[in-house]
Design brief:
Layout: E1 6-9, H1 11-19, E2 24-30, H2 36-48, E3 52-55, H3 57-63, E4 72-76, H4 84-93, E5 99-103, H5 109-121, E6 126-130, H6 139-144, E7 154-157, H7 160-169, E8 173-177, E9 194-198, H8 207-210, E10 215-217, H9 230-246
């Protein structure tokens, strides 16, 4: 398994990669593409709900190192993703008290990598991200994680809500990190099976997600700054879980 994100280019090559089950991080397309192969690719993109970006030809030239990209370049993930339902079952069967981490459309790869590293150090059983709108698992993510991305299971779901339903159906309580509550993290019992939800850098946890979780919790902020960096806040939540479970 490589630590570098692989770029593939050419319409037919990308079609074959999707059909073979490769995990595609993102597909870059040149504006105004036409033709039978493009329509075939576009149909697959829609059916697989893949993330795309329309970019100028100069970017495609850089990504493909000026090879014949035919107006399309795809980034293939360097890590394999896990099936969430199977991971939950395996975790419960192991006898461990489940600890999962859901990232609600976190977008910065450095934050993502730092969170993966902390999650691995605190015994998280799996990290769950959304297929669209989330930071990719690319070379920079892996570098920031100090290689932890290869050691902790990462699951992709169509929507974070899907994961919440599945976790709650398995008697795993969900707690969202949010300032929109009066409840402190230190008043929440984390000794039970728990999944922690962290929001995006700019808007936090989506309001529709906040309505679904079992608990909402915030951290005390004693200075003038209104919030912590999400990777720092996540570390506090995870290590409070460790503290409670060790005690």
């Amino acid at each position: 398994m490589t630590t570098e994100t692989t770029n593939i280019f050419g319409l037919r090559a990308i079609i074959e990669a999707i059909e073979s089950g490769s995990t595609i991080n993102k597909i870059y397309l040149q504006k105004g593409l036409r033709g039978e192969l493009f329509y075939e690719l576009n149909k697959l993109i829609k059916s697989e709900n893949l993330t795309t970006s329309i970019v100028p030809v100069e970017k495609l030239d850089r990504l493909s190192k000026n090879s014949n990209h035919q107006g399309a370049v795809a980034q293939i993930s360097p890590v394999e993703f896990y099936d969430l339902e199977q991971l939950i079952e395996k975790t419960i069967e192991s006898g461990a008290t489940p600890l999962f981490l859901l990232l609600d459309q976190l977008s910065d790869v450095r934050n993502f990598g730092a969170i993966i590293r902390t999650a691995e150090c605190t015994g998280v059983n799996g990290i769950i991200i959304q297929k669209n709108g989330s930071a990719p698992v690319n070379a920079e993510t892996i570098k920031t994680s100090a290689g932890a991305a290869f050691k902790i299971p990462i699951c992709k779901v169509d929507h974070i809500k899907d994961a919440l339903f599945l976790l709650q159906a398995s008697d795993i309580k969900t707690v969202a990190a949010t300032e929109k509550t009066e409840d402190s993290l230190y008043d929440v019992s984390l000794n039970q099976p728990i999944a922690i939800v962290m929001g995006s850098e700019h808007r936090g946890v989506n309001p529709s997600i906040l309505k679904m979780v079992d608990y909402k919790a915030k951290l005390p902020l004693l200075g003038d700054i209104a919030s912590l960096n999400v990777s720092v806040a996540c570390g506090v939540f995870l290590y409070e879980t460790v503290r409670q479970r060790i005690n």
